[in-house]
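ENTRY TYPE: paired fold submission
RECORD: A
CONTENT: sequence, then structure tokens
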Amino acid sequence: MITQLPDPSSPPPEVVEVIDEERIVPRGTAQVNWFVRLNDVWVHVSEWPGARSERLNAGAGTVWQSRTEIDVPRGARLMRVESRPSGYARESPLEYLTRGAPSKRRKLRRNYYFVGRLGELIATPDGPE
């Protein structure tokens, strides 16, 4: 069995803790999910090698919460995705009656971060790259 020794020139991995959740909001639920960049794809933090996840007790207004810890190199990229119900569109009474069943449209918001010292998540103003 071959064991690869860590590269002494590379910084030690940083421990990052994030919380995925679903909570009650007006018109439905909002979900927050975290992803980490692995090569050229985004993977859910729970799929990161060595990830440690646990369910948390959900308080009032919370459907579920899950805390995940991962060990990542400094500079790793993370993405937080929040999905919320869309607001109601203004429409005439005739449009309301003729449009059929309302769709379950959602608003997505993505925020990008990189890992700093001691696992601090630092927001980046730009996109994923």
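RECORD: B
CONTENT: sequence, then structure tokens
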Amino acid sequence: MASRLADLIRKARRLAAERDRLIEALAADWTRALRGQGLTAEDLEELWGGLTEDAVRRGQPADSKWTAQAWRAEAQEVIARVRAKVEAALGER
């Protein structure tokens, strides 16, 4: 049982690290795409809201083991993390 628990912990850490790398890459892509576009705070608010809605609506596969509520929470958290990184990078200009 202890070895199974250790395996699950390693897997969770690996998946979390991969998720963090993907968020970093996505934030870098969005930063490059948005830099110099002259978007207002309202424009960005609309963008992040739309991305969140789209991720919630389209992202969950039909055969997913996630509940709709869990999927929504995960999508909101990921978009919030990407948003924070992008807005911080754009603010450093």
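NOTES ON RECORD B: Helices lie at 2-34, 41-59, 68-91. The chain has one domain: 21-91.
STATUS: closed
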